[in-house]
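Sequence only, no structure available. Ideas?
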Amino acid sequence: MKNPSLKTCRHVTTFCCFVVFLLSGVEKAFSQCTTDENLPDRNCDGVVTVVALGDSFVTGFGDRKLRGNGGYVVRAQARLPTSTLKAHGVAGLRTGALLKRIRSAFNGSGYEDMLADILTADLVTIDIGRNDRWLFGPPQKAYRNLKRIQRLLANTVSELQGTSPVVTIAVLVLPNRGSQGPWVAELNEFIKASHSTSSPADLRFDRVSKRLLSSDNLHPSSKGYRALAKAYARYITRQYPRHAAPF
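Reply:
I predicted one. C-alpha cells follow.
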C-alpha cells in the first residue's frame, strides 16, 4: 500500500518548486526593467526616456549661454548621460493648445516626432500653464486642462503600449511681473493639491528663486536654467523611482 503522506509531500514539493520558478521569473523581469543606475525602465526597452512637454521654458528661451536652445532639459541631460531626455516645447503654448496637439498626435493627425517620443517614454513631465493668464480665464481652467493632459497621456499610452509612463505635472516657476505672478501662484496651489502617487504633481520648479529670472521677469537666466536642471535631474533620480515602483 502506498504511503499517502509521501504522495502529499510530492504534491507540496511540486507546488513549492512552481512558486520558486514564478518568483525567480518575477525577479528576472524586474532586473531587466531597471537600468545600471537602478532607475525604473517602465517599458523595458533598455533605456530610461524622459519627455518634457511645455512652452518656452522647455525650449530654453533666454538661456544665453546656450543661445536660447538649451534650458533645463539640455542641461539635465549632461547630468544623466545614460538616460535619454527629449524636449518638446513651443514658445507661447497654452494648456488647451497642448491638449489639442496630443489628441491630434494620438489620432494620427500630425506631431509624429512628439508621438514617437511619448510612446517610448518612461517619464513625461508637463511644464505649462503660465501663458493661459493672457486668455483672462481663471486658473482653474488651466488646471483642468493639465489634468486632462495627464490622464490622456497615461491612459492612451497604456492602451497602445501595454505600459503607462509616469506623467508628472510641474509646479511652475513664479513670474515676477504684474498680475501674472499671483495668477500663476494660484494655479500652483491647484497643482500642488492634486498630487498623489498615481498622479504626481511634485516637480517643484516653484522653489527656484525669483532672483534667477532674466530681465523679462518671466524666463530664467542661464543661472536659473542651471538651477532648474539640477532640480529636474534630482526629480528623475529620486522622485520618479518612487512613483514608478512597483511597476
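Residues 4-32 form the longest helix (29 residues).
Hope that gets you unstuck.
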